[in-house]
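User: I'm curious whether this sequence folds into something compact or stays loose and floppy. Could you predict its structure so I can see for myself?
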Amino acid sequence: MRRGPVGVPEIFGSAAMGAERAARTTSGQAISKTAPAPSGTMPIGPIGGWTLRVALLLAASFAVAVSAHGVVGLWSLVGIVLAALVIGTAAAPGTLVPLLLLLAVVGLRLLSGGPRPDAALVALVALLPLIHQLCGIAAAVPGRARLSIAALQPAAGRYLVAVVPVEVAVLLAMLVG
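Assistant: Here's the prediction. I'll summarize afterward.
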């Protein structure tokens, strides 16, 4: 068996990246540019690994904007630290920086008047697990890699199973309380 540039077995003549290996182990067949997509998948072609980091940057920016709205100015020291954490999260998703960002977002939310149920809380309940999921995937997939949308479907399913019930509970609590 030939080995690719990072010691990973080659599939279809090109080195398999982490997401392709995950897709192979979960669906039983490898997914690459040359392999046909399994039936029942979205008809979207492969995306670059850098798009995960762009999505991560957008999700982290929105989470900071939601939690810091009306509390922290952008050019204050806290605002500059938060901006650095957002950029660091997108640049190095497999480090401690995403954890610091998530703690800062939750801390800002708690310090800005407590955990009152409102639209910002609903947004944060969806964004924090999204940032967590994107960091995990982006840490495993190099920026130059090509990633099939089908490889992201198991993670998207887990995200929906985890977030939708919590969102429903938060919305019900807002309606009742």
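Summary: The beta strands are 10-11, 14-15, 47-48, 146-147. The first strand starts at residue 10 and ends at 11.
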